[in-house]
Each structure stands twice: as C-alpha cells, then as structure tokens.
Design brief:
The protein has about 180 residues and is an alpha+beta fold. The protein is about 25% helix and about 30% strand. The protein is built from seven helices and twelve strands. The longest helix has 15 residues.
Length: about 180
C-alpha cells in the first residue's frame, strides 16, 4: 500500500471532479478526521489516517482491502470508478438524475436510462457531465454520464438515451467475486 503519485492523484481527482466538483475537499477533510487515498494492487482505497496507521503494520500479502475501494487503474493507467464509491459520492453530487420506478430495475441490470424512464434531472446539467442516479425515493442507485443536456432532454423522443450507465448497486450481485 502506497500513496498515489502526482499523475495518479490528478487522474483520480479529475474523475471524482466530474461527479462532485470542488467537493473533493470535503472528502479529505471530514469532521470525523482526516482521510486519504492509497493505492494497493492497482486499486484506490479511501481510508482514515487512523486506519492507515493500523494497516501499515500488516504485511502487503495479507492485506486485502485497507478501506473503501473507490476504483481501480486499468492496464493503460485509466481510472475506473467503482460502485463502492457511491455512498461517498452521492451526498456531494452536483448533478443528479431521478429515474421512474419502472426504469429502476432496467438501470440496475446495467442498461442506460431512457427519456421515458427519466423522472427529474438537475437544472443546467451539461452533456457528458457525470451524474448520480437516484430513485424517486432519493435512494442512490448508481452513476453515469449525461448523454444529453437538460435542455436537450426536454425535446428528445422517449426512446432516446439520456444517461449512459457506468455503475449501479446491482453490481454487488452481478460482480460480487471481482469487487474486492
């Protein structure tokens, strides 16, 4: 387990910035202590300074998950955000999308959100902006990328894709063996 390099930190923060903007600072400096990001086996973990000190005494081979996995680096050094980061991204999300109850199951199976399943969308959402997807009961379901801006969503036909799927809580069941 090691700290992220400058290039890795930039890559991770750019990806997080798509979803929570300047609120990245709120992830690091929390009221319950200072938190940090660490790299272990090509995965980025989010953990407290206290937990970091305890995890330092454990050998690398024995350490499976020192904190919450936020995502992993691919072989081409691109960062892929994991669904396990959803609980930390959702409270700070700048742009949100709410899906109708009939489309929740479709999204949780890994499909994109169509205009017909769109309940609400945050005003001034730009095209290709990172969004957190909620149910109409304000339960975070996952995250994705807006395929259309807010203004374009009003004029588009009902079968057009408005949010590209990236991750959802259904992955806990579908990919339970590879999440850690």
């Amino acid at each position: 387990m090691r700290p992220l390099t400058e290039a890795e930190t930039r890559t991770v923060f750019e990806k997080l910035g798509r979803y929570i903007g300047e609120n990245i600072q709120l992830l690091v400096d929390r009221p319950d202590g200072t938190y940090c990001f660490r790299l272990h086996r090509d995965r980025v973990y989010y953990l407290s300074e206290k937990l970091l000190k305890v995890a330092a005494s454990i050998p690398r081979e024995s350490l499976t998950a020192p904190g919450t996995c936020f995502g992993k680096f691919t072989k081409t050094q691109k960062f892929r955000l994991s669904v396990t980061a959803l609980d930390f991204l959702a409270p700070y999300a700048k742009f949100k999308v709410w899906v109708k109850p009939g489309s929740e199951q479709s999204f949780l199976y890994g499909n994109h959100v169509l205009k017909s399943g769109l309940g609400r969308i945050t005003e001034n959402t730009a095209q290709y902006q990172g969004v957190v997807v909620y149910s109409m009961a304000d339960v975070p379901l996952g995250f994705g990328v807006a395929a259309k801006s807010t203004q374009a969503c009003r004029k588009v036909d009902p079968m057009a894709i408005v949010v590209f799927h990236q991750a959802d809580v259904g992955e806990y069941v579908r990919n339970e063996d590879t999440l850690m």
